Amino acid sequence: PPGLEEELPVFSRPALRPLLARTGGDLPQEVLDYALAQYTAEVSYTDHWVGELLATLAATGVDQGTLVVVVADHGECLGKGTYFEHGTCLDQGAVHVPLLLRLPGKARTGVVDGAVELLDLAPTMLEVAGLPVPAAFAGRSLLAPRPDDSVAITEHPLYDPGAVDRREERRDFLVSVAGQPIRDVEAGDLVAVRDGRWKLLVGEGGRARLYDLAEDPDEERDLTTEHPEVVDRLQRHLRAWLARYPTPPDQPSEIDAELEKTLRSLGY
Question: What predicted TM-score, i.e. pTM, was given to this entire model?
Answer without folding.
Answer: 0.72
